[in-house]
Specification:
The complex is a heterodimer of chains A (176) and B (551).
Chain A lengths: L8 H16 L15 H14 L8 H4 L1 H9 L7 H15 L8 H13 L4 H16 L11 H6 L21
Helix pairs in contact in A: 2-7, 4-7, 5-7
Chain B lengths: L5 E6 L3 H12 L4 E4 L36 E4 L5 E4 L34 H5 L14 H16 L1 E3 L22 H12 L5 E5 L35 H7 L3 E4 L3 E7 L5 E7 L5 E11 L2 H11 L23 E9 L14 E3 L15 E3 L5 H4 L12 H10 L3 E9 L7 E9 L5 E6 L4 H20 L4 E5 L38 E3 L14 H22 L4
Parallel strand pairs in B: 1-2, 1-10, 2-7, 3-16, 10-18
Antiparallel strand pairs in B: 3-4, 5-6, 6-12, 8-9, 9-10, 11-14, 11-17, 12-13, 13-14, 15-16
The chains are: A mainly alpha (176), B alpha/beta (551).
Amino acid sequence: MKRPSRLNRRRFIAATAAAAAGAATGCRSSRSSPWRFFTIEEARTLNAVCEQIIPADDAPGAAWAGVIRYIDRQLVGRFKEHQKTYREGIAGLNRLAGGRFEELDAARQIEILKKVEKDKQLRPFFDLAIAHTMQGFYGSPRHGGNRDWISWQMLGIPISPSRGREHYDLTQGAKA
Amino acid sequence: MSLKKVNAVVVGAGAAGGVVAKELAVNGLSVVLLERGKWYTPKDCRKDDLRNQRTTILGNNTGPDDEGNPRVLVDQQGRERIVFPSQGGYNNNAACVGGGTATYGAMAWRFHPKDFRMRSEYGAPEGSTLEDWPISYDDLEPYYEKAEWEIGVSGDDSGNPFKGPRKKPLPMPPLPPSREEIILRAAALRLGLHPFSIPMLRNSVPYGGRPPCMRCRWCVGFLCEVDAKNGTQNTVIPQALATGNCEIRTQCMVKEITLDDRGRATGVVYFDANDRRQEQPADLVVVSGAATESARLLLNSKHRLHPNGLGNRYDWVGRNLQGHTYTGAVGLFEQQTYDDLGPGAGIAICDYNHGNKGLRGGAMLANEFIRLPIQFLNFLPPGTPRWGKGHKDAMRKLYTHTIAVQGPTQDMPVWDSRVQLDPKVKDRWGIPVLRMSGYRHPHTLEIGAAMSEKAAAWLKEAGAIQVWLKRAGQGISGGQHQAGTCRMGNDPKTSVVNKHCQLHDVDNVFVVDGSVHVTNGGFNPVLTIMAIGYWASEYIVKTWKGTRFRS
């Protein structure tokens, strides 16, 4: 096994300083984003949209469930054709919000999303976001969303049982 | 170069193809069974609620793949678009060994005796090609029984006074009732209806060397992880192979049926798993690719003597595509109705299959399979907010407190609801794909609407505090219950095959699957498709012994 690399203190400080400088100058290379498709800013905006589609109350909402991870993952795979709709939709939403959508308070966000529903250009984006948020929230965690089966816990049903599975190789003997 | 000649090549290892392969092999014919999909096992069960045969948001779990398998869908306004297997308009059936039976809900219905003589019983409505079958329930009865015992059915229809006569009971008892069943049974009895346990191709006790159902919620749309669901892939196909007379080849896409100078079949051309072109000579060809793909294969098999495709002299191949029009109702209950006991569906009534005033037929009504949360989005009442707290609250409040009752209304066949070959679009092997067009007959929708009301009344009697109806779309009907495209009949001018599923035009080509259904019953069609498999096989074996189809 490879040994974990060790940064010494000096090199660590240098690295974090460089990262901070990058952030301060507004550097937005796609490499700095932890997402496959979205930039950090896009993800923040969309995360706020998803959270309004399924908001947290006494049970977590779409943000906590990791819906954005589901959408991001699918956008570089099966949902490739929707990349443009998302990119332009998020930009359009922020224009409509007159700034950064995610920085507005909840009441104002809802107000804007209701406008989006009536906006011919932005409606397709929002329709997609609704459908994909539902999938990411209520679908299987294997695709990136529904962290800890949180939606199933909310609905009051047991999480996926694993009874009867035959994936164990019984010929190898039991482990202590 | 062609392969070693066999007696029979069977195209498609689904509900009927599996049965035919087994019956021919057991009776000493050499058989090659070609299947375009793969052979999945219980270990391939992924319990992926976004990727299965019911919810195809991220694809089909048992094929076909979206890539390379397009079709063209023409809507009622004449607009055409390319559709892929994971999209609803494609009217997909699975592509794998077992076909739809690997992942189905497994209801094992015998059609009602009147379902075989719809025209005599009711007369055809205007704009419909409604007709009688050339065979009756009594003709098929022994073969229904054979399917029930050889493939394995649990359930108890002794409480159903509307069923056709049966000589033998079902081989397995029903699964113990779920909470929904207990609620619905009492209500049906109060209404004077006749509830009973649905016959299912699912083990309730050990049967056929495999265990019983473990009652999980991952049933319809999924491979069974304990192999308790009985399809052809775990029953007749292994039996066929065990005879030593049958060879199965998977991932083999058949392009066309080859014909000699006299217009008789000599075998098939297919592309194997490595996309190599192969020729398989055979004395006879059995087409069992389900209603859409079987019609496609016949239409793609053109010949000097059959310029419009095989069996298509009178333009009947691909016509009368039917499936089922599902309608019903959903009820909200004060008490929790969800008990996490799969498969979910368990109780049915046949009181409304026939005898509805002013309606031609009707539907069996049953409680629905377990709705996974992602599927439940489609069961919310009209008026539910699309997003926001209102939507979340509705999911939370309703999910464990509803019962859905629905049923398959048999479609009135329509001449213009059809599949044909698209002149331009081809699949990844270069074979012309299907172009689908048509609509549902208005009378079908009328019957469906009436069935919704019956379902609603049942739910109200059961104590539902709120009931909402599920209505049908108007587009073409097909899907997993696809049928009708190679109609069976006595007159070669108004049908494609005779009552033994043999092409009128070519005596060594048979179409054995739902394609031959004249009408599709107010029931899930799979047991009828299996029974027809046995029925046609018996004729093939008998006839082959005399002439070997070498006229």
